[in-house]
Amino acid sequence: MTGATAGRDPAGRLAVEGRDPGRDERAAGREAASLLEVEGLTTVLHLPGGAARVVRNVSFEVASGETLGIVGESGCGKTMLALSLIGMAPHPPAGVVAGAARFRGDDLLALPVRALREVRGRDIGMIFQEPMTALNPLMTVGEQIAEVARRHLDLSPRAARGHSIEMLERVRVPDPDRRARSYPHELSGGMRQRAMIAAALVCDPAILIADEPTTALDVTIQSQILSLIADLQERLGMGVILITHDLGVIAETADRVMVMYAGRKVEEAPVAELFADPRHPYTRGLVESVPIVGRGRDLPLAEIAGTVPEAGEEPAGCAFASRCGRVEERCRREAPRFAERRGGPGSRGRRGWRGTACHNPWGGTA
Ligand SMILES: Nc1ncnc2c1ncn2[C@@H]1O[C@H](COP(=O)(O)OP(=O)(O)O)[C@@H](O)[C@H]1O
Ligand code: SF4
Ligand SMILES: [Mg+2]
Questions:
Q1: Percent of the chain beyond pLDDT 90?
Q2: 3-class SS of residue 346
Q3: 360 phi, psi to nearest 5 deg
Q4: Pocket residue to mutate for ligand 1, from 79, 209, 241, most atoms within 8 A of Cβ
């Protein structure tokens, strides 16, 4: 876990209530149709020991201007989910075997490679944890951004160069003209991250997928990058999928949260409800393992004992059973189904529902 960010108090405790209040008002007023509808996405990884389902029957929606946070410990399938959506899961060993991801009338999972490549970069931007995986070390950052602009926006080389400097300015890179002529290794981690965000946003994408965009950065830069993404989202009305293992990042940025465990969605709720009333024992474990404002400074932090199942380990019943304090006999036999119900007081509109996949959730079954 990281230190003080805008979603935290000076002691580093989470302050979900302390979020930009305008953000929640805007979210409540937003009844936009979904931009992306993912249904039953299942990705298999072919390992020497056999096929492992690393993303299992995952469904969710994202609307314009909305941020969906995806959270879960390392190894829960978050990155595989994101890569599967944009056709970038390493193939082999990975392959999408079921599901649909509807975006502007197309199913991304069924698009031919070329068409998907067009969508990627133009309509859907992706930023990764490690900018060096996305940036070419042999080209200046300006050239790389200009190349995306030339390819998707049909700009002349000169216009594309101008556009790349504008983009660096937009992500608040100081002295963008000079920085555009730098190679990735000549920039600091924070500047590289900004350059990658600039490249992802060149075409004003409708959707931005950010996979642990700030994990490698120190807390001050982390906070700056998150507020930068929020500002750009506000300006462009993007739908954002923000993937992280850090609940502090979720508290600060997300409107809704989806919790993943062992490749499955185990809980989804509006952000304030998830923190106030986590229903799945795994979510509760995650929430209790971070300090939260108002919960008493002196309470020892709980940890979730045990570890995430490895890819390929497919226990019968609930995958969390071996770590769960609320396990019942039924849990070991039967995998729980995801069940939705209305959200709590204050949850409004079409997106107010919440749901969980658990036989014995906190607060009782729906
Ligand atoms: N290239 C790979 N080869 C083998 N296993 C992999 C590979 N990539 C991911 N995995 C496994 O797939 C599962 C999901 O991984 P990942 O999507 O990276 O999780 P997360 O992003 O939540 O940390 C994990 O069990 C991980 O070990
Ligand atoms: S289904 Fe059972 S084992 Fe799984 S999280 Fe719920 S109570 Fe725990
Ligand atoms: Mg990951």
A1: 64
A2: coil
A3: -140, 60
A4: 79
